[in-house]
Automatic annotation (TrEMBL):
Residues 25-154 form the GGDEF domain. InterPro entries: Biofilm_reg_signaling (IPR052155), GGDEF_dom (IPR000160), Nucleotide_cyclase (IPR029787), Rev_trsase/Diguanyl_cyclase (IPR043128). It comes from Corallococcus terminator. CDD domains: GGDEF. This is GGDEF domain-containing protein. SUPFAM superfamilies: Nucleotide cyclase.
């Protein structure tokens, strides 16, 4: 379990994704992170930030309880949802309604929890690449406003020229730049920080 929320952690997410093989068209990965979370920490301190993370986890759990969806806190203010593709539209509508704006109070501090999301079908490229694609779609969604959920497509700047990756063991973020001599293989990514197969 995660140390700050009621959700499962990044290690549990890695195990779940390992159980979903290449060509898995029935499942999607949804990536979301909190909008403006750094400002909460900077203005109100890490206790307020921890309370925000905890609250976001509870909101995700409640929002998804009607669907066959699993929520994980990957790291920091990043959350990942795995759900059946047939439910992704309803899941998106529910997430949008919850995370467009959701105000709570930590002590006397008013905090508005907002989140944006990106998603993609796991498909033939497998869960590791699709998680990176969902994160890219989330980045674009954040530019369009809180509560937005976008499906990844080629316009979201994830190309063979550069791939944003995140280690499933230590959480380190890194970029992969394939070349013609070293073509990209999503099943052979190694973290430059800890050496784990990412």
């Amino acid at each position: 379990m995660d140390d700050k929320t009621i959700l499962r952690n990044g290690a549990a997410l890695a195990q779940r994704l390992d159980g979903l093989g290449d060509g898995e068209d029935e499942y999607v990965v949804v990536f979301g992170d909190l909008n403006g979370f750094k400002l909460v920490n900077d203005r109100h301190g890490h206790a307020a930030g921890d309370a925000t993370i905890e609250r976001a986890g509870k909101l995700l759990s409640v929002t998804l309880e009607s669907f066959k969806a699993e929520a994980f806190r990957q790291s920091g203010d990043e959350f990942v949802i795995v759900c059946q593709k047939e439910h992704v539209i309803e899941v998106g509508e529910a997430l949008s309604g919850t995370f467009r704006s959701n105000v709570f109070f930590h002590k006397d501090i008013k905090i508005d929890i907002k989140m944006s999301f990106g998603w993609t079908t796991i498909g033939i490229d497998g869960p590791k690449l699709c998680l990176a694609r969902a994160e890219e779609a989330c980045r674009v969604a954040k530019q369009r406003g809180s509560g937005t959920m976008l499906e990844w497509d080629n316009s979201h700047s994830l190309t063979t020229e550069e791939l944003r990756c995140r280690c499933t063991k230590c959480g380190a973020a890194f970029r992969l730049t394939p070349s013609s001599a070293h073509p990209f293989n999503p099943n052979h990514l190694w973290c430059p920080q800890c050496g784990h197969q990412a």
